[in-house]
Amino acid sequence: MSQYYSSLNGQLIDTTKHSGDLLQDRGLAYGHGLFESILLAKGELPLLVRHLVRLCGDAQKLGISIQPALIESYLNQFVEYLKSEAVISGVVKIVVTAGVGGRGYQSPQLIEPSVICSYSTLPEPIAVHRRDGIAVRYCYHRLPHQPALAGIKHLNRLDQVLARREWDCADYQDGLMFSDADQLIESISANVFFKNAAGDWLTPCLKVAGVSGVMRSVLLEEIFPACQIPVQVQVIDIDEVAQCQQLFVCNSIRGLMAINSVYNFKNRLVKILPVGQQTLMLGEKLVEKYPHYQ
Amino acid sequence: MSQYYSSLNGQLIDTTKHSGDLLQDRGLAYGHGLFESILLAKGELPLLVRHLVRLCGDAQKLGISIQPALIESYLNQFVEYLKSEAVISGVVKIVVTAGVGGRGYQSPQLIEPSVICSYSTLPEPIAVHRRDGIAVRYCYHRLPHQPALAGIKHLNRLDQVLARREWDCADYQDGLMFSDADQLIESISANVFFKNAAGDWLTPCLKVAGVSGVMRSVLLEEIFPACQIPVQVQVIDIDEVAQCQQLFVCNSIRGLMAINSVYNFKNRLVKILPVGQQTLMLGEKLVEKYPHYQ
Q1: Residue A11 φ/ψ, nearest 5 degrees
Q2: pTM given for the model
Q3: pLDDT-based confidence at A64, cuts 50/70/90?
Q4: Looking at chain A, which residues constitute the CATH 3.20.10.10 domain(s)?
Protein backbone atom coordinates (compact mmCIF):
# COMPACT_ATOMS: atom_id res chain seq x y z
CA MET A 1 0.00 0.00 0.00
CA SER A 2 1.27 3.44 -0.88
CA GLN A 3 0.87 6.30 1.54
CA TYR A 4 -2.16 8.51 1.17
CA TYR A 5 -3.12 11.74 2.92
CA SER A 6 -5.86 14.23 2.15
CA SER A 7 -7.63 17.35 3.30
CA LEU A 8 -11.04 18.83 2.48
CA ASN A 9 -11.37 22.62 2.70
CA GLY A 10 -8.28 22.82 4.85
CA GLN A 11 -9.22 20.04 7.31
CA LEU A 12 -7.30 16.78 7.36
CA ILE A 13 -9.51 13.81 6.58
CA ASP A 14 -9.36 10.35 8.03
CA THR A 15 -9.82 8.40 4.81
CA THR A 16 -10.29 5.14 6.67
CA LYS A 17 -13.71 6.49 7.64
CA HIS A 18 -16.80 5.96 5.60
CA SER A 19 -17.27 8.43 2.76
CA GLY A 20 -13.79 9.87 3.37
CA ASP A 21 -13.22 7.28 0.69
CA LEU A 22 -15.08 9.45 -1.80
CA LEU A 23 -12.07 11.77 -1.87
CA GLN A 24 -10.20 9.08 -3.81
CA ASP A 25 -13.16 7.88 -5.82
CA ARG A 26 -12.78 7.65 -9.58
CA GLY A 27 -16.22 9.20 -9.94
CA LEU A 28 -14.94 12.44 -8.44
CA ALA A 29 -11.45 12.25 -9.95
CA TYR A 30 -12.46 11.56 -13.57
CA GLY A 31 -16.23 11.29 -13.77
CA HIS A 32 -15.67 7.55 -14.16
CA GLY A 33 -19.22 6.50 -13.41
CA LEU A 34 -22.90 6.69 -14.30
CA PHE A 35 -26.14 7.95 -12.86
CA GLU A 36 -29.88 7.49 -13.11
CA SER A 37 -32.53 9.94 -11.93
CA ILE A 38 -35.57 7.85 -11.04
CA LEU A 39 -39.07 9.09 -10.33
CA LEU A 40 -40.37 8.17 -6.88
CA ALA A 41 -44.17 8.33 -6.88
CA LYS A 42 -46.51 6.88 -4.26
CA GLY A 43 -43.50 5.11 -2.77
CA GLU A 44 -42.72 3.32 -6.04
CA LEU A 45 -40.07 3.57 -8.75
CA PRO A 46 -42.26 2.99 -11.81
CA LEU A 47 -39.49 2.64 -14.44
CA LEU A 48 -36.99 0.83 -12.21
CA VAL A 49 -36.38 -2.11 -14.54
CA ARG A 50 -35.59 0.09 -17.52
CA HIS A 51 -33.24 2.22 -15.39
CA LEU A 52 -31.40 -0.87 -14.14
CA VAL A 53 -31.06 -2.33 -17.63
CA ARG A 54 -29.58 0.90 -18.98
CA LEU A 55 -27.27 1.34 -15.98
CA CYS A 56 -25.88 -2.18 -16.23
CA GLY A 57 -25.44 -2.02 -20.00
CA ASP A 58 -23.66 1.32 -19.89
CA ALA A 59 -21.47 0.29 -16.94
CA GLN A 60 -19.89 -2.38 -19.11
CA LYS A 61 -18.96 0.20 -21.74
CA LEU A 62 -17.04 2.14 -19.07
CA GLY A 63 -15.35 -0.97 -17.66
CA ILE A 64 -17.37 -0.91 -14.44
CA SER A 65 -18.51 -4.33 -13.37
CA ILE A 66 -21.70 -4.17 -11.33
CA GLN A 67 -24.05 -6.71 -9.84
CA PRO A 68 -27.59 -5.70 -10.81
CA ALA A 69 -29.08 -7.54 -7.82
CA LEU A 70 -26.88 -5.60 -5.39
CA ILE A 71 -27.77 -2.25 -6.98
CA GLU A 72 -31.44 -3.14 -6.82
CA SER A 73 -31.20 -4.17 -3.18
CA TYR A 74 -29.49 -0.88 -2.25
CA LEU A 75 -32.24 1.03 -4.07
CA ASN A 76 -35.02 -0.96 -2.46
CA GLN A 77 -33.52 -0.54 1.02
CA PHE A 78 -33.19 3.17 0.38
CA VAL A 79 -36.82 3.52 -0.74
CA GLU A 80 -37.98 1.52 2.29
CA TYR A 81 -36.08 3.93 4.49
CA LEU A 82 -37.65 6.93 2.72
CA LYS A 83 -41.11 5.42 3.21
CA SER A 84 -40.39 4.91 6.90
CA GLU A 85 -39.74 8.69 6.99
CA ALA A 86 -43.06 9.27 5.15
CA VAL A 87 -41.23 10.36 2.00
CA ILE A 88 -43.06 8.84 -0.96
CA SER A 89 -42.57 11.18 -3.90
CA GLY A 90 -39.62 12.98 -5.44
CA VAL A 91 -36.44 11.98 -7.22
CA VAL A 92 -34.21 9.06 -6.28
CA LYS A 93 -30.82 9.42 -7.90
CA ILE A 94 -28.37 6.57 -8.07
CA VAL A 95 -24.72 7.16 -8.87
CA VAL A 96 -22.48 4.19 -9.59
CA THR A 97 -18.79 4.96 -9.92
CA ALA A 98 -15.84 2.77 -10.84
CA GLY A 99 -14.85 2.93 -7.16
CA VAL A 100 -11.78 3.90 -5.20
CA GLY A 101 -8.31 3.35 -6.49
CA GLY A 102 -6.00 3.11 -9.46
CA ARG A 103 -2.87 4.96 -10.43
CA GLY A 104 -3.82 7.92 -12.52
CA TYR A 105 -6.20 7.10 -15.32
CA GLN A 106 -5.57 3.36 -15.11
CA SER A 107 -8.21 1.40 -13.19
CA PRO A 108 -6.90 -1.25 -10.80
CA GLN A 109 -7.54 -4.90 -11.62
CA LEU A 110 -9.72 -5.38 -8.57
CA ILE A 111 -12.06 -2.57 -7.69
CA GLU A 112 -15.48 -2.38 -6.09
CA PRO A 113 -17.90 0.16 -7.55
CA SER A 114 -19.28 2.83 -5.22
CA VAL A 115 -23.06 3.07 -5.15
CA ILE A 116 -24.69 6.27 -3.93
CA CYS A 117 -28.42 6.63 -3.55
CA SER A 118 -29.85 10.04 -2.82
CA TYR A 119 -33.26 11.58 -2.56
CA SER A 120 -34.41 15.09 -3.34
CA THR A 121 -37.77 16.75 -3.83
CA LEU A 122 -39.17 17.28 -7.32
CA PRO A 123 -37.19 19.97 -9.12
CA GLU A 124 -39.90 22.21 -10.54
CA PRO A 125 -43.61 22.95 -10.71
CA ILE A 126 -44.08 19.84 -12.82
CA ALA A 127 -47.90 19.82 -12.76
CA VAL A 128 -48.09 23.35 -14.21
CA HIS A 129 -45.48 22.60 -16.85
CA ARG A 130 -47.20 19.38 -17.85
CA ARG A 131 -50.46 21.28 -18.32
CA ASP A 132 -49.23 24.47 -20.02
CA GLY A 133 -46.00 23.37 -21.66
CA ILE A 134 -42.63 25.05 -21.28
CA ALA A 135 -40.43 27.57 -23.09
CA VAL A 136 -37.02 26.49 -24.42
CA ARG A 137 -34.02 28.29 -25.80
CA TYR A 138 -31.32 27.23 -28.25
CA CYS A 139 -27.99 26.75 -26.43
CA TYR A 140 -24.80 28.24 -27.87
CA HIS A 141 -22.75 25.51 -26.25
CA ARG A 142 -22.42 22.58 -28.65
CA LEU A 143 -22.28 18.88 -27.83
CA PRO A 144 -19.08 17.24 -29.07
CA HIS A 145 -19.02 14.38 -31.56
CA GLN A 146 -18.00 11.36 -29.44
CA PRO A 147 -19.46 8.03 -30.62
CA ALA A 148 -17.62 6.15 -27.84
CA LEU A 149 -19.64 7.93 -25.14
CA ALA A 150 -22.86 8.77 -27.01
CA GLY A 151 -26.02 7.44 -25.42
CA ILE A 152 -24.40 6.83 -22.02
CA LYS A 153 -25.65 8.66 -18.93
CA HIS A 154 -22.13 9.09 -17.53
CA LEU A 155 -20.78 11.57 -15.01
CA ASN A 156 -18.93 13.81 -17.52
CA ARG A 157 -21.58 16.51 -17.70
CA LEU A 158 -19.67 19.76 -18.19
CA ASP A 159 -21.43 20.28 -21.52
CA GLN A 160 -24.80 20.39 -19.79
CA VAL A 161 -23.47 22.52 -16.93
CA LEU A 162 -22.01 25.11 -19.33
CA ALA A 163 -25.14 25.15 -21.50
CA ARG A 164 -27.33 25.70 -18.44
CA ARG A 165 -25.15 28.68 -17.46
CA GLU A 166 -26.25 30.55 -20.60
CA TRP A 167 -29.30 32.02 -18.87
CA ASP A 168 -30.15 32.96 -15.36
CA CYS A 169 -33.78 34.07 -15.64
CA ALA A 170 -37.03 32.11 -15.35
CA ASP A 171 -37.99 32.72 -18.99
CA TYR A 172 -36.86 29.30 -20.22
CA GLN A 173 -37.35 25.92 -18.57
CA ASP A 174 -34.87 24.02 -20.72
CA GLY A 175 -32.42 24.51 -23.60
CA LEU A 176 -32.11 22.72 -26.93
CA MET A 177 -28.61 21.40 -27.63
CA PHE A 178 -27.02 20.98 -31.02
CA SER A 179 -23.91 19.32 -32.40
CA ASP A 180 -21.04 21.12 -34.09
CA ALA A 181 -22.66 20.11 -37.35
CA ASP A 182 -25.83 22.06 -36.40
CA GLN A 183 -27.87 18.96 -35.71
CA LEU A 184 -30.44 18.80 -32.93
CA ILE A 185 -29.41 16.23 -30.30
CA GLU A 186 -31.46 16.71 -27.12
CA SER A 187 -32.35 19.28 -24.50
CA ILE A 188 -30.09 19.93 -21.51
CA SER A 189 -31.95 17.48 -19.31
CA ALA A 190 -34.32 15.58 -21.62
CA ASN A 191 -34.80 14.00 -25.03
CA VAL A 192 -36.74 15.73 -27.80
CA PHE A 193 -39.51 14.60 -30.15
CA PHE A 194 -41.16 16.73 -32.82
CA LYS A 195 -43.59 16.68 -35.70
CA ASN A 196 -41.95 18.23 -38.74
CA ALA A 197 -43.46 20.43 -41.43
CA ALA A 198 -44.35 17.35 -43.49
CA GLY A 199 -46.29 15.87 -40.55
CA ASP A 200 -43.76 13.15 -39.58
CA TRP A 201 -42.81 12.51 -35.95
CA LEU A 202 -39.04 12.40 -35.43
CA THR A 203 -36.52 12.15 -32.61
CA PRO A 204 -32.77 12.75 -32.99
CA CYS A 205 -30.36 9.90 -33.62
CA LEU A 206 -27.95 9.62 -30.64
CA LYS A 207 -25.08 7.73 -32.22
CA VAL A 208 -22.54 10.54 -31.97
CA ALA A 209 -23.81 12.59 -29.00
CA GLY A 210 -26.58 12.76 -26.43
CA VAL A 211 -28.08 10.60 -23.70
CA SER A 212 -30.38 7.74 -24.61
CA GLY A 213 -33.12 8.41 -22.08
CA VAL A 214 -35.32 5.86 -20.39
CA MET A 215 -38.49 7.86 -21.15
CA ARG A 216 -37.38 8.18 -24.78
CA SER A 217 -37.30 4.38 -25.02
CA VAL A 218 -40.73 4.10 -23.34
CA LEU A 219 -42.15 6.50 -25.95
CA LEU A 220 -40.46 4.83 -28.91
CA GLU A 221 -41.25 1.27 -27.85
CA GLU A 222 -44.63 1.62 -26.13
CA ILE A 223 -46.41 4.94 -26.38
CA PHE A 224 -46.06 5.89 -30.05
CA PRO A 225 -47.03 2.35 -31.15
CA ALA A 226 -49.99 2.31 -28.72
CA CYS A 227 -51.22 5.58 -30.28
CA GLN A 228 -50.59 4.17 -33.77
CA ILE A 229 -48.42 7.19 -34.57
CA PRO A 230 -45.32 6.35 -36.64
CA VAL A 231 -42.04 7.83 -35.35
CA GLN A 232 -38.53 7.77 -36.73
CA VAL A 233 -35.08 8.16 -35.23
CA GLN A 234 -32.95 10.26 -37.56
CA VAL A 235 -30.37 12.99 -38.01
CA ILE A 236 -32.15 16.33 -37.68
CA ASP A 237 -30.94 19.67 -38.96
CA ILE A 238 -31.35 22.81 -36.86
CA ASP A 239 -33.51 24.39 -39.59
CA GLU A 240 -36.14 21.69 -39.20
CA VAL A 241 -36.75 22.75 -35.61
CA ALA A 242 -37.93 26.22 -36.58
CA GLN A 243 -40.44 24.70 -39.00
CA CYS A 244 -41.92 22.02 -36.75
CA GLN A 245 -45.64 21.74 -35.96
CA GLN A 246 -45.38 20.12 -32.52
CA LEU A 247 -42.43 19.70 -30.15
CA PHE A 248 -42.00 18.12 -26.75
CA VAL A 249 -39.26 17.03 -24.36
CA CYS A 250 -39.37 13.97 -22.15
CA ASN A 251 -37.46 12.40 -19.31
CA SER A 252 -38.18 9.92 -16.59
CA ILE A 253 -38.83 12.61 -13.97
CA ARG A 254 -40.94 15.05 -15.95
CA GLY A 255 -42.65 12.55 -18.24
CA LEU A 256 -43.72 14.33 -21.41
CA MET A 257 -43.74 18.12 -21.57
CA ALA A 258 -44.99 20.07 -24.54
CA ILE A 259 -42.92 23.03 -25.69
CA ASN A 260 -45.04 26.14 -26.18
CA SER A 261 -42.35 28.58 -27.30
CA VAL A 262 -38.87 28.39 -28.78
CA TYR A 263 -36.25 31.13 -28.51
CA ASN A 264 -33.04 31.23 -30.54
CA PHE A 265 -29.42 31.87 -29.52
CA LYS A 266 -30.14 35.59 -29.36
CA ASN A 267 -33.16 35.14 -27.09
CA ARG A 268 -35.47 36.03 -29.97
CA LEU A 269 -38.77 34.17 -30.22
CA VAL A 270 -38.58 31.72 -33.12
CA LYS A 271 -41.90 30.02 -32.68
CA ILE A 272 -45.07 29.80 -30.60
CA LEU A 273 -46.56 26.33 -30.55
CA PRO A 274 -50.04 25.52 -29.25
CA VAL A 275 -50.00 22.12 -27.54
CA GLY A 276 -50.89 19.80 -30.42
CA GLN A 277 -53.55 17.07 -30.48
CA GLN A 278 -51.05 14.26 -30.99
CA THR A 279 -48.79 15.57 -28.23
CA LEU A 280 -51.83 15.52 -25.91
CA MET A 281 -52.73 12.01 -27.04
CA LEU A 282 -49.19 10.74 -26.39
CA GLY A 283 -49.19 12.36 -22.94
CA GLU A 284 -52.53 10.78 -22.09
CA LYS A 285 -51.40 7.36 -23.26
CA LEU A 286 -48.28 7.66 -21.11
CA VAL A 287 -50.43 8.42 -18.05
CA GLU A 288 -52.79 5.58 -18.93
CA LYS A 289 -49.90 3.10 -19.05
CA TYR A 290 -47.89 4.72 -16.23
CA PRO A 291 -50.31 6.51 -13.89
CA HIS A 292 -47.38 7.76 -11.79
CA TYR A 293 -46.83 10.40 -14.51
CA GLN A 294 -50.26 11.92 -13.85
CA MET B 1 -34.42 23.88 2.39
CA SER B 2 -35.54 20.83 0.51
CA GLN B 3 -35.24 17.43 2.09
CA TYR B 4 -32.18 15.39 1.30
CA TYR B 5 -31.28 11.81 2.15
CA SER B 6 -28.49 9.59 0.91
CA SER B 7 -26.76 6.27 1.26
CA LEU B 8 -23.32 5.04 0.25
CA ASN B 9 -22.96 1.33 -0.53
CA GLY B 10 -26.15 0.57 1.33
CA GLN B 11 -25.35 2.57 4.48
CA LEU B 12 -27.30 5.72 5.29
CA ILE B 13 -25.06 8.77 5.47
CA ASP B 14 -25.32 11.71 7.79
CA THR B 15 -24.70 14.45 5.24
CA THR B 16 -24.35 17.08 7.93
CA LYS B 17 -20.99 15.49 8.70
CA HIS B 18 -17.79 16.52 7.06
CA SER B 19 -17.17 14.93 3.66
CA GLY B 20 -20.68 13.41 3.66
CA ASP B 21 -21.11 16.64 1.75
CA LEU B 22 -19.12 15.19 -1.12
CA LEU B 23 -22.12 13.01 -1.97
CA GLN B 24 -23.89 16.14 -3.19
CA ASP B 25 -20.83 17.81 -4.66
CA ARG B 26 -21.02 19.05 -8.25
CA GLY B 27 -17.56 17.62 -8.82
CA LEU B 28 -18.89 14.11 -8.32
CA ALA B 29 -22.30 14.72 -9.91
CA TYR B 30 -21.10 16.36 -13.14
CA GLY B 31 -17.32 16.63 -13.07
CA HIS B 32 -17.90 20.35 -12.47
CA GLY B 33 -14.39 21.13 -11.28
CA LEU B 34 -10.67 21.16 -11.99
CA PHE B 35 -7.50 19.54 -10.77
CA GLU B 36 -3.75 20.02 -10.69
CA SER B 37 -1.15 17.32 -10.08
CA ILE B 38 1.81 19.06 -8.51
CA LEU B 39 5.30 17.66 -7.97
CA LEU B 40 6.40 17.60 -4.34
CA ALA B 41 10.19 17.42 -4.20
CA LYS B 42 12.38 18.08 -1.16
CA GLY B 43 9.29 19.43 0.61
CA GLU B 44 8.68 22.03 -2.09
CA LEU B 45 6.17 22.54 -4.91
CA PRO B 46 8.51 23.91 -7.59
CA LEU B 47 5.88 24.97 -10.15
CA LEU B 48 3.24 26.13 -7.66
CA VAL B 49 2.75 29.60 -9.14
CA ARG B 50 2.13 28.29 -12.64
CA HIS B 51 -0.31 25.69 -11.28
CA LEU B 52 -2.25 28.34 -9.35
CA VAL B 53 -2.41 30.68 -12.34
CA ARG B 54 -3.80 27.96 -14.57
CA LEU B 55 -6.26 26.74 -11.93
CA CYS B 56 -7.66 30.20 -11.30
CA GLY B 57 -7.89 31.07 -14.99
CA ASP B 58 -9.66 27.84 -15.89
CA ALA B 59 -12.01 28.05 -12.88
CA GLN B 60 -13.50 31.22 -14.34
CA LYS B 61 -14.27 29.44 -17.60
CA LEU B 62 -16.32 26.87 -15.66
CA GLY B 63 -18.10 29.50 -13.56
CA ILE B 64 -16.24 28.56 -10.38
CA SER B 65 -15.19 31.56 -8.36
CA ILE B 66 -12.10 30.82 -6.27
CA GLN B 67 -9.84 32.86 -4.04
CA PRO B 68 -6.25 32.12 -5.05
CA ALA B 69 -4.94 33.07 -1.60
CA LEU B 70 -7.25 30.57 0.10
CA ILE B 71 -6.26 27.77 -2.29
CA GLU B 72 -2.60 28.56 -1.70
CA SER B 73 -3.03 28.56 2.07
CA TYR B 74 -4.77 25.16 1.98
CA LEU B 75 -1.94 23.80 -0.15
CA ASN B 76 0.75 25.25 2.09
CA GLN B 77 -0.91 23.92 5.25
CA PHE B 78 -1.18 20.52 3.62
CA VAL B 79 2.49 20.46 2.63
CA GLU B 80 3.49 21.56 6.14
CA TYR B 81 1.51 18.66 7.52
CA LEU B 82 3.18 16.24 5.10
CA LYS B 83 6.60 17.54 6.15
CA SER B 84 5.68 17.03 9.80
CA GLU B 85 5.06 13.38 8.84
CA ALA B 86 8.47 13.29 7.09
CA VAL B 87 6.82 13.11 3.67
CA ILE B 88 8.79 15.34 1.32
CA SER B 89 8.47 13.88 -2.15
CA GLY B 90 5.61 12.57 -4.28
CA VAL B 91 2.52 14.06 -5.88
CA VAL B 92 0.22 16.63 -4.32
CA LYS B 93 -3.07 16.75 -6.15
CA ILE B 94 -5.52 19.57 -5.69
CA VAL B 95 -9.14 19.22 -6.81
CA VAL B 96 -11.36 22.30 -6.81
CA THR B 97 -15.02 21.67 -7.53
CA ALA B 98 -17.94 24.07 -7.97
CA GLY B 99 -19.11 22.92 -4.53
CA VAL B 100 -22.27 21.47 -3.06
CA GLY B 101 -25.69 22.37 -4.34
CA GLY B 102 -27.82 23.43 -7.25
CA ARG B 103 -30.88 21.95 -8.86
CA GLY B 104 -29.83 19.64 -11.61
CA TYR B 105 -27.30 21.17 -13.95
CA GLN B 106 -27.97 24.72 -12.78
CA SER B 107 -25.46 26.09 -10.27
CA PRO B 108 -26.89 27.98 -7.34
CA GLN B 109 -26.22 31.73 -7.12
CA LEU B 110 -24.23 31.34 -3.95
CA ILE B 111 -21.92 28.39 -3.71
CA GLU B 112 -18.59 27.72 -2.06
CA PRO B 113 -16.07 25.66 -4.01
CA SER B 114 -14.80 22.46 -2.41
CA VAL B 115 -11.03 22.17 -2.20
CA ILE B 116 -9.44 18.76 -1.81
CA CYS B 117 -5.71 18.28 -1.34
CA SER B 118 -4.31 14.79 -1.49
CA TYR B 119 -0.90 13.21 -1.46
CA SER B 120 0.31 10.03 -3.09
CA THR B 121 3.70 8.54 -3.84
CA LEU B 122 5.28 8.97 -7.26
CA PRO B 123 3.40 6.88 -9.82
CA GLU B 124 6.20 5.06 -11.64
CA PRO B 125 9.92 4.37 -11.82
CA ILE B 126 10.48 7.93 -12.97
CA ALA B 127 14.29 7.90 -12.74
CA VAL B 128 14.57 4.89 -15.07
CA HIS B 129 12.08 6.35 -17.54
CA ARG B 130 13.85 9.71 -17.55
CA ARG B 131 17.14 7.97 -18.33
CA ASP B 132 16.02 5.37 -20.89
CA GLY B 133 12.89 6.89 -22.35
CA ILE B 134 9.49 5.21 -22.61
CA ALA B 135 7.41 3.28 -25.14
CA VAL B 136 4.09 4.71 -26.31
CA ARG B 137 1.15 3.37 -28.27
CA TYR B 138 -1.41 5.06 -30.48
CA CYS B 139 -4.83 5.07 -28.78
CA TYR B 140 -7.93 4.05 -30.72
CA HIS B 141 -10.09 6.25 -28.55
CA ARG B 142 -10.31 9.74 -30.07
CA LEU B 143 -10.51 13.08 -28.30
CA PRO B 144 -13.65 15.02 -29.22
CA HIS B 145 -13.60 18.45 -30.86
CA GLN B 146 -14.75 20.80 -28.06
CA PRO B 147 -13.26 24.30 -28.21
CA ALA B 148 -15.26 25.39 -25.13
CA LEU B 149 -13.37 22.91 -22.92
CA ALA B 150 -10.05 22.59 -24.76
CA GLY B 151 -6.97 23.42 -22.73
CA ILE B 152 -8.77 23.11 -19.37
CA LYS B 153 -7.67 20.50 -16.83
CA HIS B 154 -11.26 19.74 -15.79
CA LEU B 155 -12.71 16.67 -14.10
CA ASN B 156 -14.42 15.21 -17.21
CA ARG B 157 -11.74 12.63 -17.98
CA LEU B 158 -13.60 9.65 -19.41
CA ASP B 159 -11.67 10.02 -22.66
CA GLN B 160 -8.41 9.43 -20.86
CA VAL B 161 -9.87 6.62 -18.75
CA LEU B 162 -11.18 4.78 -21.83
CA ALA B 163 -7.95 5.32 -23.76
CA ARG B 164 -5.92 3.93 -20.84
CA ARG B 165 -8.12 0.82 -20.82
CA GLU B 166 -6.84 -0.14 -24.27
CA TRP B 167 -3.88 -2.04 -22.86
CA ASP B 168 -3.21 -3.90 -19.69
CA CYS B 169 0.43 -4.92 -20.07
CA ALA B 170 3.64 -3.13 -19.08
CA ASP B 171 4.80 -2.75 -22.70
CA TYR B 172 3.69 0.88 -23.03
CA GLN B 173 4.10 3.69 -20.52
CA ASP B 174 1.72 6.11 -22.20
CA GLY B 175 -0.57 6.43 -25.23
CA LEU B 176 -0.72 9.06 -27.97
CA MET B 177 -4.18 10.54 -28.46
CA PHE B 178 -5.61 11.88 -31.70
CA SER B 179 -8.65 13.87 -32.74
CA ASP B 180 -11.41 12.61 -35.00
CA ALA B 181 -9.63 14.46 -37.77
CA ASP B 182 -6.50 12.30 -37.21
CA GLN B 183 -4.52 15.08 -35.62
CA LEU B 184 -2.09 14.46 -32.77
CA ILE B 185 -3.29 16.23 -29.60
CA GLU B 186 -1.40 14.91 -26.56
CA SER B 187 -0.63 11.72 -24.68
CA ILE B 188 -3.04 10.30 -22.10
CA SER B 189 -1.31 12.06 -19.24
CA ALA B 190 1.15 14.49 -20.82
CA ASN B 191 1.81 16.91 -23.64
CA VAL B 192 3.90 15.99 -26.66
CA PHE B 193 6.77 17.68 -28.49
CA PHE B 194 8.57 16.34 -31.52
CA LYS B 195 11.16 17.14 -34.17
CA ASN B 196 9.68 16.47 -37.59
CA ALA B 197 11.35 15.05 -40.69
CA ALA B 198 12.33 18.58 -41.78
CA GLY B 199 14.09 19.19 -38.46
CA ASP B 200 11.51 21.58 -36.94
CA TRP B 201 10.35 21.22 -33.33
CA LEU B 202 6.57 21.22 -32.98
CA THR B 203 3.90 20.73 -30.35
CA PRO B 204 0.18 20.29 -31.07
CA CYS B 205 -2.20 23.22 -31.03
CA LEU B 206 -4.76 22.71 -28.21
CA LYS B 207 -7.56 24.99 -29.39
CA VAL B 208 -10.09 22.23 -30.03
CA ALA B 209 -8.97 19.45 -27.66
CA GLY B 210 -6.32 18.56 -25.09
CA VAL B 211 -4.98 19.90 -21.81
CA SER B 212 -2.67 22.88 -21.80
CA GLY B 213 -0.06 21.53 -19.39
CA VAL B 214 2.05 23.52 -16.97
CA MET B 215 5.25 21.76 -18.07
CA ARG B 216 4.34 22.45 -21.70
CA SER B 217 4.25 26.16 -20.91
CA VAL B 218 7.59 25.96 -19.06
CA LEU B 219 9.15 24.33 -22.12
CA LEU B 220 7.60 26.75 -24.62
CA GLU B 221 8.33 29.88 -22.60
CA GLU B 222 11.61 29.05 -20.85
CA ILE B 223 13.42 25.91 -21.90
CA PHE B 224 13.26 25.97 -25.70
CA PRO B 225 14.28 29.68 -25.76
CA ALA B 226 17.10 29.04 -23.27
CA CYS B 227 18.43 26.29 -25.57
CA GLN B 228 17.98 28.58 -28.58
CA ILE B 229 15.87 25.93 -30.27
CA PRO B 230 12.88 27.32 -32.20
CA VAL B 231 9.55 25.57 -31.52
CA GLN B 232 6.10 26.05 -33.01
CA VAL B 233 2.57 25.30 -31.87
CA GLN B 234 0.59 23.91 -34.78
CA VAL B 235 -1.94 21.44 -36.08
CA ILE B 236 -0.16 18.10 -36.56
CA ASP B 237 -1.29 15.26 -38.76
CA ILE B 238 -0.98 11.66 -37.56
CA ASP B 239 1.33 10.84 -40.51
CA GLU B 240 3.91 13.32 -39.26
CA VAL B 241 4.35 11.32 -36.07
CA ALA B 242 5.61 8.23 -37.89
CA GLN B 243 8.23 10.34 -39.67
CA CYS B 244 9.57 12.28 -36.69
CA GLN B 245 13.24 12.30 -35.65
CA GLN B 246 12.78 12.95 -31.94
CA LEU B 247 9.73 12.74 -29.70
CA PHE B 248 9.11 13.35 -26.03
CA VAL B 249 6.24 13.79 -23.58
CA CYS B 250 6.22 16.14 -20.63
CA ASN B 251 4.15 16.91 -17.58
CA SER B 252 4.72 18.55 -14.25
CA ILE B 253 5.24 15.25 -12.42
CA ARG B 254 7.47 13.42 -14.87
CA GLY B 255 9.30 16.42 -16.31
CA LEU B 256 10.54 15.55 -19.79
CA MET B 257 10.58 11.95 -20.97
CA ALA B 258 11.99 10.85 -24.29
CA ILE B 259 10.01 8.33 -26.29
CA ASN B 260 12.16 5.45 -27.49
CA SER B 261 9.56 3.43 -29.36
CA VAL B 262 6.17 4.04 -30.91
CA TYR B 263 3.53 1.34 -31.52
CA ASN B 264 0.46 1.83 -33.67
CA PHE B 265 -3.21 0.97 -33.05
CA LYS B 266 -2.49 -2.66 -33.86
CA ASN B 267 0.41 -2.86 -31.38
CA ARG B 268 2.88 -2.98 -34.28
CA LEU B 269 6.17 -1.15 -33.85
CA VAL B 270 6.11 2.01 -36.00
CA LYS B 271 9.40 3.49 -34.96
CA ILE B 272 12.44 3.13 -32.73
CA LEU B 273 13.90 6.43 -31.67
CA PRO B 274 17.30 6.82 -30.02
CA VAL B 275 17.16 9.64 -27.46
CA GLY B 276 18.20 12.65 -29.56
CA GLN B 277 20.82 15.26 -28.73
CA GLN B 278 18.35 18.13 -28.59
CA THR B 279 15.95 16.14 -26.41
CA LEU B 280 18.87 15.53 -24.01
CA MET B 281 19.80 19.20 -24.11
CA LEU B 282 16.23 20.30 -23.32
CA GLY B 283 16.05 17.80 -20.45
CA GLU B 284 19.35 19.06 -19.03
CA LYS B 285 18.25 22.69 -19.30
CA LEU B 286 15.03 21.84 -17.46
CA VAL B 287 17.02 20.27 -14.62
CA GLU B 288 19.42 23.22 -14.58
CA LYS B 289 16.51 25.67 -14.17
CA TYR B 290 14.37 23.39 -12.00
CA PRO B 291 16.68 21.00 -10.12
CA HIS B 292 13.63 19.26 -8.58
CA TYR B 293 13.25 17.46 -11.93
CA GLN B 294 16.67 15.79 -11.51
Answers
A1: -105, 130
A2: 0.96
A3: very high
A4: 126-293
